[in-house]
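Lab channel / #folding
Pinned by the channel admin:
"Please post every new chain as: sequence first, then the C-alpha cells as a reply. Keep commentary short and put observations after the output so the thread stays searchable."

First post following the new format, from NK:
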Amino acid sequence: MNLINKLLNVYYLRVIALLLSCTGLFLASWIVVPPPVIAVLPLAVGAAEVSPWLIGLNAIATLIALKLLSNRGSYVVLGISIVALVISTLPLVQFSGANQEAAISMKVGLGETYLTQISQAKMRPDPFVLIDAFRGIPTQEIRKTTGIQVASPDGVQLTMNAYRPMEPGKNPTIIMIYGGAWVTGSPSANENFSQYMAARGYTVMAIDYRHAPQYKFPTQIADIKTALEFIQQHANEYDIDINRIALMGRSAGGHLAKLTGFQSQVLPIRAIVSYYSPVELTLGYEDPPSPDPLDIQAILRSFLGGTPQELPGLYRQASPYEYVKPGLPPTLLIYGKRDHVVQSKYGRALYEKLNKNGNTTVFIEVPWAEHAFDAVFNGVGNQLALYYTERFLAWALR
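Reply from TO:
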C-alpha cells in the first residue's frame, strides 16, 4: 500500500511538473516569438512585462523536476523548465543596459545637470522596484472628475476626464490623448497613469476625439483643438497652470499629440511625450512590420481614406515627421524594440531629425518591449518608462 501511495505521489508530481513546465514555456516563449495574429498580441505584450511572475512559475517547475530526476522522463520536463526559466529572465537581464542607455539619452538631451534642477520633485526612487512587479505600483487618493461635457460636433458627444491632486492650486498639467488605432478608445484609457501622475502633483486632462473610419483625418485634430480651447477657458476650474502644459499620447494618441504639439497655436505647449506612435505614415504604409498582426495598411486606409498613392498630400499632412523645424517643444520618444505595430526605427528617425533641427529631444528604446507594453502598469518595461517620463516632465514643466 505504501508503495502504491508513493508511486501515485510521484505520478502526480510528474503531471504537475509537466503542466507547469509546458505552461511556463508557452507563456515565456512570447518574450521572443513575434505575434503573427492579433489574437496572440496580448500575450506578446504581456509576457515580458510579467516576466518576474514567469521566473517564479518556471523556477517552481524546475525545482519539482529536479526532485523527480530519478524517474524516467523527468529529464525532458527539466529541460523544458530550464529553457522557459532562461527565456523568462531575458527582460531583467537586459534591464541594466537599457537603463544605462536611457540615463545617457536623458543627460544628452536635457543636460548633465538636469537632475539637480528637479531634485525636489516627487518621483519614483528607482527605475525598477521588484516588489511593485508583484503587488502593483502604490497609488494615493486623488480627485477624479469623469464625463466632463466638452462639445458635440455632428451629434457625437466629446468628453474629458480630470485627475487632480487632493490639494487645490495651480498644477503643471498633462493633456492626455488616448490611442486605439484612431478607431476606438476613451478618455479613461491608461487611467492608472493618469491617477499616478495626479498623485504626484499634476493635473491630468484626458481628452476625446471622433473615430475613424466614420470620421477621417483631420477631424481628430479639430477635436483636439476644441478640447484645448475648453481647457484654456476652464483652467481655473480644474487647477491648470496654463503656462506649464505637456501633451502626451500613446500610439495613435502619441501621433496626434505630436501633430498638435508641433503646430499648436491654441496653448503654449511646454513638452510632448509620445509612446510608440506613428511618425511618417507613407513609410509606415509601404514598410509595415513583419509579422503584421494588426494589418497596418488597413488601419491607415481607414484613418485617411485611401493609400499613399491615392492621397499623397494627406499622408504628408498626417505625418509628424513633416512638421519638424527649429523651436519645437522638448519631446520624449519611447519605443519598444520588438514593436510589431509601430517599428522603433521610425521613432529613432524622428529623434534624429528633431536633433538636427536643434530641438531638445530624448529617445528611449526598451529592448524587450512590444507595442502597448505599458498596459501592464507595474510591468518591467513600464516601470522603466515611467521613471524617465516622470523626470522628463518634472524638468520640462518645472
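NK: Strands lie at 143-151, 158-164, 171-177, 203-207, 240-250, 269-275, 331-336, 361-366.
TO: also worth noting, The chain has a mean pLDDT of 95.
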